[in-house]
């Protein structure tokens, strides 16, 4: 029995390492390629013989890339903040109040997730063009918000459901209003989930490509994924620069995860709130 | 003044009528306990009094003021929940100070009141701990402390001991009894399904059944003179023996009122439950149900014995075919 469970442990470890390698290998390769001279990039070894930061210097010297970086930061930050501000009251209402059509509204919100973003791409582009909002960051912000909000609402609803109603009732008896109870009791308890949802919305907007490609053509409002695409220049193409761009795109996600990792893991496993 | 007057109170959840025409007068400073089987509406009635549920009809007065439309926070009540409902992200001190902070009470007053309540409930060493760091009994004391700090007119308890183990339940029950003595002006309403709690703590007990009040009375009145078959069967452990006659009437006799050894009736001992100080003998007397007899330790018969028994006529409860008391 003991021998068997040890063997099982080893097999599970090997499988975990294999899966991890499979997932991490391309990312590691991107990072290593970004600090290698172009001539070395296609070599078989993963360990770089020479290290250079020229690709990064190169990419940050490009004005269009810096504009794209700024645009992505603006859109990402607004999307993250607005997602949290809209998703909290929406989720709270779905979780705590009883009203006509509540379950149907909840279902509709979830149903929007059943369509892939590509399926709604054409109508979104047509609507935004007819509103005269093509080539604006506003249009991109709204579409990214619409993309991430449904899942954010459902995630938060799950966490609010897990907070016992009695805690809010105790707060109401102690003298607060229902909304006061939400702010003073429920919100602090689901803070990890709020951080998780905000981070998720930022990352979603930060890496979104298809909608940006369809809505944005002018260089001043391009976001990072679009700027990365422009690096594939047939006249002066450098794998190293493309990889450095990839690293810059991945960096905020990694930094956010490292900053909020406790909250994120807590947010994903929360629910065990006991009095 | 903190009397509670309930007049023709009704509560519906959709089409289901959970409370039907409830009338109650709870005097200021009284300790009243609602008992009844699961789903009888006792917790709903308490929540209606607290203001956490809106009533569907009738009137509810606290301290002479109709509070039908007064929010829970303005009713001058405090409530202790079954699950304690302590705020997990606040320390014991913050939990207890919360209501006063909401009222923007001066800091020094908050400190004095919290320290006072903590001393009363032996919580002083735990003031800076979080609820997760406390035992079940300590959490319950914090929940009571949080309610005391508010200095409420009316204290509501929703099955406060049911999450505690047996030994702790006895200790906390005594604490609640002491708390009542120390707050003679405060009206207390308490919900439980535990008869021992009801019998030992209450000034008066309200027995609820299927959303109606079956009987209101002191523990002694309910035990000695149950007004209906339901109350007769519900109050008392082991429950009253109820012997049905062919005409639909019922004769009730408490297990401790039956004397074994002599008498005109006979039964065979089907089995015996030994409880230490006394024991229960279950006699087969040819009816659907066994007859329960409470005996002291030394008088316990053996299984299989055929025994004679008798009971004093004045201890017999009689109920008509509608289940109402006749004697």
From TrEMBL, chain A:
Q: What subcellular compartments does it reside in?
A: Cell membrane
Q: GO:BP terms for this protein? A: transmembrane transport
**Native organism:** Devosia elaeis
Functionally, this protein is described as follows:
Part of the ABC transporter complex MalEFGK involved in maltose/maltodextrin import. Probably responsible for the translocation of the substrate across the membrane.
Q: What membrane topology term does the record carry? A: Multi-pass membrane protein
Q: What is this protein called?
A: Maltose/maltodextrin transport system permease protein MalG
Ranges where the ABC transmembrane type-1 domain occurs: 69-260
Q: Which UniProt keywords apply?
A: Cell membrane, Membrane, Sugar transport, Transmembrane, Transmembrane helix, Transport
Q: Which domain of life is it from?
A: Bacteria
Q: List GO terms (cellular component aspect).
A: plasma membrane
Main localization category: membrane
Record-linked Pfam families? BPD_transp_1
Entry keyword annotation includes Transmembrane: yes
Automatic annotation (TrEMBL), chain B:
Keyword Transferase attached = no
- Extract the CDD domains matched here: ABC_MalK_N
The topology of this chain with respect to the membrane is: Peripheral membrane protein
Q: Which InterPro entries match?
A: AAA+_ATPase (IPR003593), ABC_transporter-like_ATP-bd (IPR003439), ABC_transporter-like_CS (IPR017871), ABC_transpr_MalK-like (IPR015855), ABC_transpr_MalK/UgpC-like (IPR047641), Mo/tungstate-bd_C_term_dom (IPR008995), NA-bd_OB-fold (IPR012340), P-loop_NTPase (IPR027417)
User: In what residue span(s) does the ABC transporter domain sit?
Assistant: 4-235
Q: Name one GO molecular function term.
A: ATP binding
Record-linked PROSITE patterns: ABC_TRANSPORTER_1, ABC_TRANSPORTER_2
Primary localization = membrane
- State the GO CC annotations: ATP-binding cassette (ABC) transporter complex, substrate-binding subunit-containing; maltose transport complex
UniProt keyword annotation of Lipid metabolism present:
no
Q: Which UniProt keywords apply?
A: ATP-binding, Nucleotide-binding, Transport
Cellular compartments annotated? Cell inner membrane
Q: Which PANTHER family did the record assign?
A: MALTODEXTRIN IMPORT ATP-BINDING PROTEIN MSMX (PTHR43875), MALTOSE_MALTODEXTRIN IMPORT ATP-BINDING PROTEIN MALK (PTHR43875:SF3)
Q: Which family does it belong to?
A: Belongs to the ABC transporter superfamily.
Indicate what this protein is called per its UniProt record: Sugar ABC transporter ATP-binding protein
Native species: Devosia elaeis
